[in-house]
Amino acid sequence: MVVATLIVMNCVVVLNVSLRTPATHTLSPRLRRVLLELLPRLLGSGRPPERPEAGPPRRASSLGLLARAEDLILRTPRSELLFQAQRHRHRGAGGLAAAAPDLRYCVDAINYVARSTREQEECGEEMAMWAQVGKAIDNICFWAALLLFSLGTGIIFFGGHFNRVPDLPFPPCIG
User: Where does 19-92 have alpha helices with state H?
Assistant: First the structure.
């Protein structure tokens, strides 16, 4: 029961650390050095390999056009593009926004979730750092549990080995 409790507590602590964001927590330079550089080297778990850069560079003449297209298509939510297309199609009659105001509220909520997800992806390097810290803590707990279980098993086996039967297990009753 104690082991199951310790395992559950370890999972909770590791998940708590792994899912932190830079907006809510900061990591001191000393802890960063210990948890991200020293411990992974000692425990034999290195950093994940860096991702290679994307494809060949584009021509300079198409960079401006690509930047504007990216800004329009990638940065603008699809629902906004849909409402703009409906407005142009109905020539300012309102389109979907006028027909169903509740739909507009739902779309705004979805856009909010998409924006917050995009912001979290933009600070992905810092979040990856917290995931690495969680991994280091998990490795420490793994090695501590392995050591504890090995020592406990050894003590149990040697306890049985050194347990000797007395010369006279049941002394006679004098009476």
Answer: 29-33, 39-43, 60-73, 78-89
Query: Among residues of the chain, what percentage have pLDDT more than 70?
Result: 65
CB 36 within 8 A of CB 132: yes
* Cα–Cα distance, 108 to 118 (Å, whole number): 15
- Angle (nearest 5°) at CA 35 between 33 and 41: 90
Name the burial class of residue 5, with classes exposed (0-12), middle (13-18) and buried (19+) by CB atoms within 10 angstroms of its CB: exposed
Q: Which residue has the higher pLDDT, 108 or 152?
A: 152
Question: Token pair for residue 41?
Answer: 């080297």
Q: Do the beta carbons of residue 133 and residue 27 sit within 8 Å?
A: yes
User: In the prediction, which pLDDT does 151 show?
Assistant: 95
CB 14 within 8 A of CB 137: yes
Task: Tell me if 66 sits within 8 A of 52, measured CB to CB.
Answer: no
